[in-house]
UniProtKB/TrEMBL annotation:
Signal sequence bounds: none
Pfam families linked to this entry: HTH_1, LysR_substrate
PROSITE patterns named in the record: HTH_LYSR (PS50931)
Entry keyword set: Activator, DNA-binding, Transcription, Transcription regulation
GO cellular component, one term: protein-DNA complex
UniProt-recorded name of the protein: Hydrogen peroxide-inducible genes activator
Residue span(s) of domain HTH lysR-type: 4-61
Species this chain originates from: Bradyrhizobium zhanjiangense
Top-level taxon of the source organism: Bacteria
Length: 308
């Protein structure tokens, strides 16, 4: 009989994800020598090498790669056992891991955290901010409980719950205040400033302007809406931002705002989680808190599960 411990499996999972002993040890809050010892014991127990070690990084062997996927499945199942126990309680308590995309987190996170803490004081809220593909991967692997993203994500193993729709506004230099609002066709001829590739908001802006890729006159890929707005303030070009970002991003920028004619560009904000998550009922309650925090009403047909 092979004697493995959950601790060893979690350490190996961290090492497989980070590819570096130092970063993995930091993520596990242990010393690097202690991590190395646990991994060596795991290799001895299993009777095979899991890693190819070098001075700067580690790479998984073929055996290690196959084991890494099985370990993720095991750890996800263990975590869901804990969630199952939590779901049976009357109160919502313990760890809650929420992911958010960068075009939502700075504007909604403070209100969501404040409301959740007030309504569920025993929750330990942990937030992860990154782009949608990474959030979906971490959800599927069981490293997040839920994520707040722009829908659809169309991942068969996830439940999607639509929360509210949000319009996009045109941001122009302050001198353009009162001038006619350009059509989407005219936008293709303007210097449109966009977020860098990987942000779903970039793709949504390009879709509205009927562009398959960045316009030829584009001269900036930014990592944040704040940078885009400040560049518009400097007269570099124009950009689009979601409504929720307006109060924060335009308060110190000399820009003008305008709404497009109908149909206006927009996005649907929603929550996603694994279909197997035992906390589905509690996560639906949290989705109501998100709507409350955004000051929005939920669509009538809010929840839908993506079919495989």
């Amino acid at each position: 009989m092979i004697n493995l411990t959950l601790r060893q499996l979690r350490y190996f999972d961290a090492l497989a994800r980070h590819g570096h002993f130092g970063r993995a040890a930091e993520a596990c809050s242990i010393s690097q020598p202690a991590l190395s010892m646990q991994i060596k014991e795991l290799e001895e127990t299993l009777g095979g090498l899991l890693l190819e070690r070098s001075a700067r990084q580690v790479a998984l062997t073929r055996f290690g790669e196959e084991l890494a996927q099985r370990v993720r499945d095991i750890l996800r199942s263990v975590d869901e056992l804990g969630d199952f126990a939590r779901a049976s309680r009357d109160r919502f308590a313990g760890r809650l891991r929420i992911g958010m995309i960068p075009t939502i987190a700075p504007y909604l996170l403070p209100k969501i955290t404040k409301n959740l803490t007030r309504m569920h004081p025993e929750l330990d809220i942990r937030v992860r901010e990154t782009m949608t593909p990474r959030l979906i991967q971490e959800l599927v692997e069981g490293r997040l409980d839920t994520a707040i993203v722009a829908l659809p994500v169309s991942e068969p193993s996830l439940t999607e719950v639509a929360l509210f729709d949000e319009k996009f506004l045109l941001v122009r230099p302050g001198a353009d205040e009162g001038t006619p609002v350009p059509s989407r066709e005219m936008m293709r001829e303007m210097r449109l400033l966009l977020l860098e590739e990987g942000h779903c908001f970039r793709d949504q802006a390009l879709s509205f302007c009927n562009m398959q890729s960045a316009p030829p006159r584009e001269m900036l890929d930014a990592n944040s809406l704040s940078t885009l707005v400040q560049m518009v303030s400097a007269g570099i070009g124009v950009t689009l931002i979601p409504e929720m970002a307006v109060p924060v991003e335009t308060r110190s920028a000399s820009v003008s705002l305008a709404r497009f004619r109908d149909p206006q560009p927009s996005r649907t904000i929603g929550m996603v989680w694994r279909k197997t998550n035992p906390l589905a009922r509690q996560l639906l309650q949290i989705s109501e808190v998100v709507c409350l925090s955004a000051g929005k009403a939920r669509p009538r047909q809010a929840a839908r599960s993506q079919r495989a």
